[in-house]
Design a protein that fits this description.
Elements (H helix, E strand, L loop, with lengths): L2 E5 L8 E5 L12 H10 L6 E6 L2 E6 L6 H21 L4 E7 L3 H14 L17 E5 L5 H22 L7 H15 L2 E5 L1 H6 L3 H7 L7 E7 L10 E5 L1 E5 L20 H15 L6 E10 L11 E3 L5 E3 L7 H11 L7 E6 L3 H7 L4 E5 L3 H14 L3 E3 L17 E2 L7 H10 L6 E5 L5 E2 L9 E2 L4 H13 L1
Parallel strand pairs: 1-6, 2-4, 2-5, 5-6, 9-11, 9-14, 10-11, 13-17, 14-18, 15-16
Antiparallel strand pairs: 3-4, 7-8, 8-11, 12-13, 15-18, 19-20
């Protein structure tokens, strides 16, 4: 894990990473003319990264090309990830990152990509860990120590979310997830409460309890709250994250090849919202935020809930179960109706909810829909563009409601084969009266191969998006 430190001047002879404003700034890197020329020629590379090894001293430089602002920032992050790879390959544990460019935000983007690109989940690896970058000194006149602290807080939180998603279910059942969230909250000074099975039963959370029926481990319902003294919002923003620590599909066992291989990631939404509220607290954002994480595993054992069952939810509505693999919405629905007590300004659900979302747009963005006003959606989209966790807003037409009509209950938990990501969102909307946005992160939450600063495995998708969204709400 990389830690950044503020430095006032460059160190002669140190391994150097640089953001440069054109070839002429390369002369400030203490290089011979031939090495400057060599670096300058490489700056035209497609990835915008130049590298030279001068008698064991590694020098890497990124020169941002002209492009829309969001693209420039993303290119800087990806250049930072490449720098992390080069440092690891050269077995360097520290270096300096120098801004030879007036744009401080751009240098922070390079640093962000560097830290996120250096991430690795090695908890269960035996033997000596390979040398990797750990300490980076940031040199730029417009970046102060507080900015460096905020950067450290953000990337550390994202990496913690990644760790949770990568943790196998054998070490992270619902009770253990709640314990990890408690630790995350303690470190960020966020108020934390967890409801146990008896309390969940007393509240009548039939959806969560139904999914838990096939498990030997009890469910949990975690409540996180960050309420600063001078919050800009009189009503909180409520984040609800799916916490299915492992999903077999239940009795509707997942039928497709390899479909269970990565189902430890089905709690990525819960990890995301917990990370977002922790980061908001660490960054001292003046926004009142609540996060709810209903958690269990979904297995076919014991008295597992079955297709044909009718479940009475926390809200009092009844749901006909058509497929036990549509379990995430059952948990989230109970959390949504529980959240009515907060009278939220906006409520956002985050979940690896449907394969339909992943099939629709792949791993390059997040499917979104809901009843919130366009101003809120525009703020979310702007945040997504800025951090490159882009939003694809899907329609939420009333005609989709008919897909959930049931002959014997208030609604079904599954629509037809078409538009599965939208009917899932429509199901959730039945359980809240508040302005509502649903984010389906099934595509980008867990990758089967590395993509820039997004690693293979858990990516922490959605955390940076929500933090940027909350920052924009703080300024609104």
């Amino acid at each position: 894990m990389i830690t950044f430190e503020k430095a006032t001047r460059t160190a002669a002879g140190a391994d150097t990473l640089a953001l440069v404003a054109g070839k002429t700034r390369l002369r400030e890197l203490e290089l011979e003319r031939a090495d400057q020329h060599y670096l300058g020629e490489q700056l035209a590379n497609e990835d915008g990264l130049a590298a030279v090894d001068v008698s064991g001293r590694l020098v890497l430089a990124h020169n941002p090309a002209k492009a829309p602002r969001a693209e420039v920032l993303e290119n800087a992050r990806r250049a930072g990830a490449l720098m992390a790879e080069r440092l690891a390959a050269a077995k360097r544990s520290e270096a300096q990152l120098v801004g030879l460019h007036e744009d401080a935000e751009l240098l922070l983007a390079v640093a962000e990509g560097l830290a996120l690109g250096a991430y690795g989940f090695r908890k269960y690896k035996t033997g000596k860990a390979p040398v990797a970058p750990e300490r980076i000194r940031l040199v730029h006149p417009d970046i102060d120590r507080r900015a460096v602290e905020r950067l450290n807080d953000l990337v550390t939180t994202v990496c913690t979310v990644r760790d949770l998603v990568n943790e196998p279910a054998s070490s992270l059942n619902a009770v253990q997830l709640a314990s990890e969230l408690r630790t995350l909250c303690r470190n960020a000074q966020v108020k934390f409460q967890v409801l146990d099975k008896a309390q969940i039963e007393a509240l009548g959370m039939g959806g969560l309890l139904a999914v838990n029926k096939g498990s030997v481990d009890p469910p949990t319902f975690s409540i996180l709250e960050y309420k600063p003294k001078k919050a800009v919002n009189t009503k909180p923003i409520v984040l609800v994250g799916k916490g299915v620590v492992y999903d077999t599909g239940g009795l509707s066992l997942k039928p497709t090849p390899n479909s269970m291989d990565y189902m430890k990631c089905d709690m990525a939404g819960g990890a995301c919202v917990a990370g977002a509220i922790a980061a908001a607290a660490l960054l001292e954002l003046p926004v009142h935020v609540v996060a709810l994480v209903p958690a269990t595993d979904n297995r076919p054992g014991g008295n597992a809930f079955a297709p044909g069952d009718v479940v009475r939810m926390h809200s009092g509505l009844t749901v006909e179960v058509m497929n036990s693999d549509a379990e995430g919405r059952m948990l989230l629905a109970d959390a949504l109706s529980y959240a009515e007590r907060y009278q939220a300004e906006t409520i956002i659900t985050v979940a690896t909810l449907t394969g339909a979302a992943a099939r629709a747009i792949g791993t390059q963005g997040i499917v979104a829909m809901g009843t919130a006003d366009e101003r809120t959606f525009d703020r979310l989209k702007a945040a997504g563009d800025h951090v490159h966790e882009r939003i694809a807003q899907f329609p939420f037409w009333k005609e989709y409601d008919r897909e959930l009509d049931s002959d014997i209950a208030d609604l079904k938990n599954l629509g037809s084969d078409s538009a599965g990501m939208i009917t899932a969102g429509k199901f959730l909307a039945r359980f809240t009266t508040r302005p509502f946005i649903h984010l389906d992160i099934a595509g980008p939450a867990f990758l089967t191969r590395r993509d820039g600063y997004r690693p293979k495995g858990g990516t922490g998708s959605g955390t940076r998006l929500l933090v940027d969204f909350l920052q924009r709400r703080a300024k609104a």
